[in-house]
Amino acid sequence: MADYAPTEVGGGEPPPPAPARLAPLPGGIRRHAARGTIINAGFSVSLVTLGLLRGLIVAAFLTPAEYGVWGILMVSLLATIWIKQAGIGDKFVQQTESDQELAFQKAFTLELAFNCAVAAIFVCALPVMVLVYGRDELLAPGLVIALTLPISVFQAPSWIFYRRMDFVRQRLLLAVDPIVGFAVTVALAVAGAGYWSLVVGLVVGAACGSVAAVVASPCRLRLRYERGTARGYLDFSWPLVVAGGASIVIAQTAIIAGELELGLAGAGAITLASTISQYSNRVDGIVTGTLYPAICAVRDRKDLLLESFVKSNRLALMWGVPFGVGLSLFAEDFVHYVLGDKWAYATFLLQVFGGAAALGHVAFNWDAFFRARGETRPIAVWSVLTMVSFLAVPLPLLLLDGLHGFAIGMGVMTAVSLAIRCWYVARLFQELRVLSHALRAVAPSVPAVGCVLALRWMAADVGVISELVLYLGVSAVATVWVERALLSEVLGYLRRLPSRPVHTAA
Hints:
Layout: H1 28-61, H2 64-80, H3 88-94, H4 100-133, H5 139-145, H6 148-152, H7 158-163, H8 167-190, H9 196-216, H10 229-262, H11 264-297, H12 302-329, H13 331-339, H14 347-359, H15 366-372, H16 377-392, H17 394-428, H18 434-442, H19 445-457, H20 464-482, H21 484-494
């Protein structure tokens, strides 16, 4: 395959030669993307883990009610920034204009306009939030959080390195925000700042990340708009806006219903469970993000798309399924020894969210392949149907049976969501056997869970640490045995040596 995509030329006066999507890469896109995914994923997973640790550390210092205030603020913020997630950065990566600096400036202009509009909407919505929740304490931190919207747009220069697959520079720039945010948040939480520690950490991290991106930008930051620019981005992005809106309806409704039915403690439990389960989604996003430019470059090669889809999924499932299953298996111990008994009422919710996180890894990055092909409507359909299933099952069960019913309903919603995206994947890749792909991922966790349950059934008092070590050890051995061919190929990429590709059939 070609190591860089062809460029487009217009009519009339011949433009200067368009820059390649990618400079020629040693070893080709396959090796470069594989090394980028493996090496930089390890770096980025560390940063995502910081975000998880931040949430857990702060949860230990905050009361469930205080954590509930933070959850309300974040969900309300997300309810207004779904326009910001409309795929402007993804469209910039996909485009092949001859003047890349101009292309970046047009994308940056749209992003800034959207962010400023969303910030204004969020500020106007704050009084409504105060009335809906009956919580005056939401107003002041909400105004501070609104600052992150116009500030974070100046991290847009990271798109340039992303498009070039210069993962080292991209990851270094994106690391500034979470590292600074973690340090500020934890320091303030320990000092007794309550939910303000999370608010200030969010804003300071965004500001520092933006400064670093502007300093490193290879393109000048200017406001540029050409007729038709918005239309081109809108055609690509409107289904993503719909998808984001559906996701926000789910999150916002869950928090509102949880707070009204169970108080701030209920909202705090839902926020905590979501924080832990979303950790796995964010790690998966790293793999997807690393591969996306390469997927765009080979979007017309179905064989290469299938290979990258299957292998990236298998790599993610190697850790994602044990993580989710382990969370379910050790949820009670996690609450008792890590979070504290004040969170005991959320144990069953954590167990169900762990199982949902494990299932959620199957075909986790399907949307990246549809985005790369410019087919974004299936993403909107999937999100809307998932939202409908949430309104039909988890929400009523929350009102009828509290957190226990909500947890069961979320399990049902996860199964519906998985079925829909697997249907779309099967349409795109007719050769892929989705069921066997999923069963192969679950297989290594079966003996690990069996060993732990056997110890508990025999009432063997070996301690939680020993059980956890046993679970991780058996999972690792079983994974190596099941995926030894793929792991051998991965090691070949790391050694910069030729390696024999494994078959893509799941």
